[in-house]
Amino acid sequence: MDLKGKIAFVTGGGSGIGAAISKQLDQAGASVVVFDLNEEAKEITRSFENESLFTKGNVAKSEDVNRAVEEAMNKFGRIDILVNNAGIFRDKKLVDMSEEEWNGVLDVNLKGAFLIIKKIAPLMKQSGYGKIVNISSVSHKGNFGQANYSASKAGLVSLTNTAALELAPEITVNSIAPGSIDTPLFRSMDEKGKEKFLKKIPMKRVGQPEEIAQAVLFFSSDASSYVTGTLLEVDGGLTTG
Ligand code: NAD
């Protein structure tokens, strides 16, 4: 895919799936803005071939989002691609889940994407071009111990569809539901949880972050010019049948 000259904004772009997405966007020729809560995420931009920007902040705070987008606009003057990838989980059975654990996950995984789309979509509309990709999860269908996470990821699919309707025709908005992907987030899951996923995967292995990044590249490029409001499951067959 050729993304030469495009400007991409990736949340949580310094680790795991986000790092693979940022790298592949850079390799395809885009300038990448990495927006991440973790200062160490800055490291990734050192390996980029194209001009890039690291900006630290919390996707769940509108003041951080607004400042980061303004920084990106001051440097590049345009944002063509937005990848809402930042996400966290705080697993617990729902009766044991605190209000803080519910709010914390919903704030990052769902409100964060809302705040960023709200800020960036008008800029994309103005330029007449935009590609938005939201990283949901196969857990959007509901998953034991993940009431907050699953609800946030289902919300993200719904937000994708509404945004696709409201932002057409200039902007396409699609979501990806990764299955079990080999990242720090997945590795931090308890062994029982990991085993449960592995048993159910027809392809008998976890996915690699690069395999999610390839799907992001499709939705970020003109190869997907007539695709909007869809959900692509990249899960080794986990949710089939
Ligand atoms: P990760 O923990 O490796 O990376 C997440 C990144 O997001 C980190 O760099 C972190 O600093 C950043 N981040 C966290 N909270 C933030 C905030 N409030 N503001 C800005 N940045 C923040 O996770 P990952 O496994 O690469 O997951 C990436 C996305 O993929 C998440 O949305 C996750 O829900 C989704 N996902 C992952 C898997 C999996 O198996 N790993 C499966 C399905 C979906």
Automatic annotation (TrEMBL):
Coiled coil feature spans: none
Keywords associated with the record: Oxidoreductase
Pfam families for the chain: adh_short_C2
Transmembrane segments: none
Broad class of enzyme this protein falls into: oxidoreductase
Family matches, as SUPFAM superfamilies: NAD(P)-binding Rossmann-fold domains (SSF51735)
Matches recorded under InterPro entries: NAD(P)-bd_dom_sf, Sc_DH/Rdtase_CS, SDR, SDR_fam
GO biological process: monocarboxylic acid metabolic process
GO MF terms held by the record: 3-oxoacyl-[acyl-carrier-protein] reductase (NADPH) activity
EC numbers for this chain: 1.1.1.100
Keyword Glycosyltransferase: no
Source organism superkingdom: Bacteria
Family as reported in the entry's similarity comment: Belongs to the short-chain dehydrogenases/reductases (SDR) family.
Name used for this protein in its record: 3-oxoacyl-[acyl-carrier protein] reductase
Organism: Planococcus koreensis
